[in-house]
Amino acid sequence: LGLIGLAGVDAFAPGSLPASPAARSASRGGICHLSMQDSSDAGRASPPSGLVLDNTGRISPPVANEGRRLMTLGGAALAAGVVLPGGASAEALKTPVDVGKIDQDLPCTKVLTGMWQLSGGHGYKPDKKKAIEAMRESVEKGFTTFDLADHYGDAEPITSLFRGKYPELWKESQFYTKWVPMPGPMPREVVERAVDRRLKRMGTDRLDMLQFHWWDYESKDQYLEAMGHMQDMVREGKIGKLALTNFDTANYKASRDAGINLVSNQVQFSLIDQRPLQKMAPYCVENDLKLLAYGTVCGGFLSDSYVGKKKLTRKDVDTASKGKYYNMIEMWGGWPLFQDLLASLKTIGDKHGVSVTNVATRWAIEQPAVAGAIVGSRLGLTDHTDSNLKVFTFQLDDEDKALIASVTAKSNDLMKVVGDCGDEYRRRG
C-alpha cells in the first residue's frame, strides 16, 4: 500500500484511540504495521500501536466501533477521503458498512445477509463448510447481521457451527431468526418448546431477535397468547428482542395495543413493492419502530444482468425467489415497464459508479423506518459482499429520486392488487 496518512477519521472513535487519530503504514512483506497518533502530534515519533494490517485489508487485533462491526484501514481511509499515492490499489481499500440499532441497543447492519437460499430451490446444494467460510468473510468485511428462520434448511445449525469455528466473529455478529408455526392453541409449553428448539439448533442460550409469523388473523387470541409467552421469555432472558414478520399494519398495531413490546416487522419492500410507504412505514415512524426490508433486489431481477433483456426464458426463472418476484413484477406493471425501470436505474448507477443492484438496495435503506435491507446469499457458491459494500459509497440525490418516480408512477398500486404488507401470504376475504 505504500505510505498512507489518515487524519480526522471520526469513524474510528473507540474510547481507546485518540479523538482525531492518524494512521501510518509501512509495507513490509505483505503486511502493514500501523501506528496511531493525534494529528496535533504530526512530525513526532509515536510508539507502535501493535496494530497490523494484513494483505486482505484486515486489522489485527480487531478494532470495534459502537456498532460492533470490525473496522478496517480501508474503511478509515475512505472516511478520511484519503488520496492514494501512485501505484497504490484502490481495490485494496474496503468501505465501512453502515450499522444502525433496533430498539436502541441491538446492532443491525444496513445490508443484512439473507439465508433463505439455504432452504433449497435456489440453484445449488448448500455446503456447510463453504457456507461457514462465506459467513466468516462477510463478518470480516462488516456484514455482521444475518436473517434466518426455522424453515430455512440448515441455516440455524450453520450459525452454531460458525460459532464453534469462529467464536470471536460470532460474538461480533447478530442472528435474527423466525418462528412460523401453524395456527392452533398456544399454551406456554408449545411456545417454549419452539423457542428452546431455536436455541438448541443455534447453539446459544439467548436469541438476538425472534421474528414471529402468523398465518391466520381470524385466530387473533391464539397469536396474542403466543406473543405473550414470548414476551415473558424476553424478560427471562431466552429472547433478546421480539419482532414480527409479514404482519399487516392493523394487526401490528393490535398486537402492540395488547401490550406486546414489538421492535420491528419484516416485510417485502422494494422499488417494485412500495406498499409499506402507505401505512406500515408511517405507523413505524410515528411509534419509533423499525422495518426490515426483503425482496429489495427482486431475487436478482433488479440487476445489470437483465437490463435490455426483452424476453425471459425458463432459465431466467430458475430459483424459488425468482419465481416469486417475477410474479410480483407482473402484478406491479409487467416486464416492459420493468425494463424502463432498469434503464433508469442503470443511468443512476453509471452516474455514481455503482450497479443497478446497488441503486435498488440504496433506495430501500433510505426509506422511512428501514433498519436494513436483506440481500439473499447463496453462501459458499456466490459472493457479492464487495459489490454490496458499494451501497455505502453514495446517496440518491433529488434527480435520482425523480427519475425513479417517473417510472414507478406508471405502475399498478399493489395495495389495491395484493393488499397490505403480508397479505400475499393470506387469503383475502
What characteristics describe this protein?
429 residues, alpha/beta, 14 strands, disordered N terminus
Walkthrough of the structure:
- With 429 residues, this protein is α/β, with parallel strands linked by helices.
- The protein has helices at residues 73-80, 128-140, 155-165, 167-171, 188-202, 220-236, 249-257, 280-286, 320-332, 335-352, 356-365, 385-389, 398-408, 414-417, and strands spanning 21-28, 31-38, 51-53, 59-60, 99-102, 106-109, 111-114, 145-147, 174-179, 207-212, 239-245, 264-268, 290-294, 370-376.
- Strand 10 (207-212), helix 6 and strand 11 form a beta-alpha-beta unit.
- Helix 10 (335-352) packs antiparallel against helix 13.
- Mean pLDDT is 81; it is low at 1-92.
Distance between the termini: 63 Å
Number of strands: 14
Q: Residue-averaged pLDDT, rounded? A: 81
> Could you state the oligomeric state of the chains shown?
single chain
Biggest sheet details: 8 strands, parallel, barrel
Q: Helix share of residues?
A: 25-40%
Give the SSE order as H and E letters: EEEEHEEEHEHHEHEHEHEHEHHHEHHH
- Can you count the helices? 14
How would you classify the helix and strand content by structural class?
alpha/beta
Rg over alpha carbons = 23 Å
Give the overall shape, derived from the CA principal axes: globular
Strand order of the largest sheet: 7-8-9-10-11-12-13-14
Low-confidence stretches: 1-92
Strand content: 15-25%
